[in-house]
Structures are given as C-alpha cells and as structure tokens.
Amino acid sequence: MILNRYEKMIARRYLLPGKGEGFIFLVAAISLAAVALGVAALIIVMSVMNGFRAELFDKIVGLNGHAIVNGYEGRLSEWQRIAASARATPGVVSALPLIEQPLMASANGRVEGVLVRGMRPSDLQNNPIISSHVKSGQLVDIAPGSNKIAIGSGLAQSLGAYVGSEISLISPEGRDTPVGSVPRIVTYTVGAVFEVGVYDYDKQYIIMPMEDAQSLLLMGNQIGMIEVQVDNPDKVSETLAPLAPIVRGHGILIDWRQMNSALFSALEVERIAMFVVLSLIVLVAVFNILSSLIMLVRAKTRDIAILRTMGASRRAMMKIFVTVGTTIGALGIMLGVILGALFLFFRQPIVDSIQYLTGQDLWDPSVRVLSSLPSKSDPVEIGAIIVTALLLSFLATLYPAWKAASTDPVQVLRYE
C-alpha cells in the first residue's frame, strides 16, 4: 500500500498520542504487546515441539536404525546372507548385526532391569549417538574378550557404578541341573559411561562386544537382529520392499514408523493442537487492534471531516487507518519474533532459573524423555506465523478504516 506525503504524515501523527489521547495510545500499546506475546508464544511452542520430534528421531533412529530385521524368538539365522542382501538394496546405507536382550544387572547390592546390546566394536565406535556422548572411560576399551562394557549414565547412577566398577549380569539362559535350570551370572567391568540424552536409554542400556553377548546368551554364531539405515527415512517402506521376501521365514521387517508410531503420532497431534490453541492469542490481540482503531476513529471524527472538506478522498482515509492498524500489528510481530528468539536462545537457563525459584523439578527426564529442553526453528513455519499474524492485523483494520472513510463532513461539522 503506497501512501503519498500527506497521508504518511497523518498516519504517523495518528500513531503517536495527541493531547488527551493517552488512553487510546495505551489501548494501542496493549494491542501491540498482545500481538508480540501471541507471536512469541507460537514461535516458542512450535520450535520446542519441532525440537522434541527432531531430537527423539535422531537419537531413537541413531540407536535403533530406520528399520530392523528381528529374528523369530530373538534368534536370526543366516543373518550374513540377509545383511548382504540388505546392503545390496538400492537406498540402503548400512545393515549392522545386533543383539538385544533384557536381563538383570546387579552391583553394590542393587538390582536393575537392563537392556543388553551386543555390537561389533567398529560399529560401536562409528555410532555418533554413542561415541560423541561418552562421559567417562573410552569406547576403545570395549573389545572382545576384554570383559568390559559401556553403560548409560542413568544406570550408572542407579547402580552406584563408575568406570572400573564390576557389574554382574544375570541371564535366564543357564545350564540345566537335576534341580532345574540355574541362571547364568557373569561379571563385567565398566569400561565407559555414556549419556545420549534420552532417559530410557541412559537408564537401561548396557553395550558389550558382539562376541561377548553371544557367549553370555549362549547364542553361538547367531544374532538377534539387523539394524538397517536408509538414505531417505520418509521412504523407508518403499526402499525396503524388495528385502521383505528375503526376510520372510527368518524374521520380521519393522521400520521406524511401526516401532515408534504411538510416540510420533502423539507428538504430531499435540503439535497441531498447540498451534490452534495458541493462534487464539493472536486472534484476541487482533481484536484489540480493532477496538483501538475504532476508538481512534471516534476521537478523530472532527479531524477526518476537516480533511474531507479539504479534498481528502475516501480512499485516502481508508489507506491512512489501514496503515495505522497494520503498523501496530507489524511492530508487534517484530517484537514477538525478537522475544521468541531470545527465549529459545536462553531456554535452558530460563527453565533452570524457574526451577530454582519455585523449588520444583519442571524438567524431570523420566517424564519428559529428553534430558534438556530441545528447540528446532523451522523458517517456513515462522514465516507462516508472521504472514498469518500480519494478515489478521490487516483484516482487523478494514472495518474501522471503512467507518473513517464513510464519515460525512456535513453531518460532523454542521454544529461546529
């Protein structure tokens, strides 16, 4: 909307408080602040929700792959042929053998349920989710025959273990005796402690070399599953479709959507619901702009009539008041973007400060899954929020601007 010189001057004059117009200016300032808070809330919540999904996806998929070939009864025979076929499938990045088995762990008189994972040492060291989050010890020490394991930080805290501590793993796959089956108990030394940032993994995971896991679980040369990574996670089903006939009869092929469908579906529903609910804040702020402009038109009725008698057109009046209202909305949007960016940048210190002041644990990892507040801003999404808020602000100006343009100078100035 292009304004000429006098229209710009009048619009600028109406944006600033005149004599006796402090209340109107206060209402306009409240409208601006409401728009800013609404936009900031939308940006903050959507960025945090996107961060949740991205962090969970990266860490869950980083540990479990985009798909797994799970053997029947936890045993996968002929896994070398299946892994080779998977690696030869177009779009597949890697196919790694794994063993996963829930067991019991004991140390310092404490017992915890754990998830033992057997990996090849090279695969363990090349896994960025684990190798880049080692808190103490070294992954190179986790070698076949070393009798050393890596454990999550939450499990280390629960068992009171640290690098150099001994942990006994209890497996129900033991030897048979005249009085029944005796559980197999093997003691290992903690060689490394890691913290990937997902509470359940840090609380349960024990990682050991593949050969040691096979020996502990009496699996011989068998494994439990094959972890498959693809180049496009969104098309994992189409990519792995040729692998399904090869797997049939040996195990089940499950992709990341099936493994975590409930979690990611819940996050998507919550994300949409939060967007709709918080958009109402922007809508309420827009009504504030509407009310402040109506008050401004009523206060400036005489000025409008004089401008009309001096030759100002209806279109000029429309442009002036539309500009005033849209400017209030635009300034609020700019302030909201700045507030949102500042909050997201200092999000963790803000959460920590609130926890300190209230004495409440607002971010319990056992409930929130992740150990810190994540954030991932989507420029397209932020752009959509800005455009939507600006469009609503523009629409809110149309009725007051039309009322200003419809002012009859003869009726207003008749008794002046």
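Above is the first protein from milestone M3; the second protein from the same milestone is given next.
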Amino acid sequence: MAELPELLILSQQMDYQLQLKEFAGGDLRQEKSLNLSPGDFLETIKGRKVLKVYNKGKWIFIQLSDDYHLLLNLGMGADILYQEAGQSPEEYQCLFQFTDGSAFTCKFWWMGKAEILPDKELPQHKATKDIAITPLDEGFTPEYLQELCQSRSQIKNLLLNQKKVGGIGNVYIHDIVFRAKIHPQSTANTLSVSSVNTLHKIIQENLKEAIELGGLAYEKDFYGENNGFGTEHFLVAYKEGEPCPECRNTIEKIKTGSTSSYICPRCQKL
C-alpha cells in the first residue's frame, strides 16, 4: 500500500506530466468508486484543465480550472498510470483522457476512490478535511510531535492516525519505531522529551531515504516503473524470525490492535 513517499513521488510526476492538459472524456467502469454517476462525472470533468497536482496525506489532489478538484485515493493499493497518445491502456476501473490523446488510468486493488467536487466543498469533504500535516511539511516540528505525544494513545496508533500525522502507514512505521528504540505499544505520554525528539528525526530520515530511492520497489510510479526501496532496506519490518541488525536477537511479529508489528523485543522494551 502506497504511503507518503510513494504518493509524494506520484503527485510530483503527475504535476509535471499533466500541467495544463484538458480533459476530453474517459471510461469509468466502477461506479462504487465514484461520488457521481459515470455520466455526470465525465460531463463535469470535460473541458477542465489540470492546474496543479499535489498530495494531502494518502490522497492525490488534482486542482482543475474553473474552481474544481479531482480527488484520488488509492485505497489498499492502486496503479495510477500515464498513457502516451496512441498507447493502449491495460486493465483499469477509471480512464481519464485528454484532448492531446494522452490519458491516465486508475486500477484500484481494493477500496479506491475517484471524486470530483467544486472547490467550495473541499473544506467540508468528509474524507479529507481532517487530514493532518505530513512529516515533511514545514509545520511538523519537534514541538508539534511533542504536543501530539501528550496523548495516552499507543505511539504506533498515534503515528498512524491520519488526523494527527498524515501519510505514515503500516509499512514504514516498523523501522521508524525500531530505530527510535520505542516499543509500538508504548503510551505516547510516557516517552521522554529526548525520545520524542529522536523519533521526530528518524521519521523524517526514513521517509526522505525512501523518497531518494524512488519509493517502495513493489509500487509502480506514474510511468509504471518499480523503484528501489526493497526488502533489503528494511531493518526489522517483515523480517520475522531473522536476527535483529543491532543485537542479533530474533525479530518477532506481534499483534498491535488491528495491525501487526515487527519488533526486536530486546531493543524495544515495553
């Protein structure tokens, strides 16, 4: 499932490739993914130009001319792929075509969304209005994280809460808390100031490294390429039964609420 590094890369590629392209039409095959009927959706988007593409948490925001936005959510996974003019698209649920013959497709694996709405409705859009800043935003300071950590929530749940921190999911979180020597079930308000400052630094370092490597190796970018952050870059994540890279103790998989976590029980004491 794509997280902040992959979505940031994808939105930047889309912003570069789609600037000022005008929508001509499309083919929308999965009505349950849409907020309008396919016909109304295509009628609304037709003739509008792409002004800007950016991400907010795990959503892609496409700013359109005449005060509209196209919003895409990859759900539990999706391929959003660019198609050159004349190129035949692969399997998809949504196809968006431009007047120059190019297009892009969305192939949702599970629970993806494509919604179009006027800008005036964005502040009330239920799914995105409360998404917090991301760890790479200017406002994500050590002080911001210190304030969040006044909570009695478990630290992993806190960092995965998109209303508190936008963009982190259950892929990168394992190595983040491992490097910080924090057990994922530690209560946030029991962490020292020093531990929270270290956690802040590691969150940004890990996400920036993933971006520099092009995102997760099993996620496709806008051009269908799989990039360089693979299993060899993980420290404890998804490495149950292997030795801890720090102390050589055995990595364990534990249940943490609705998700699982990979930890070193010696390095990450509860």
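Note on the second protein: The mean pLDDT is 95.
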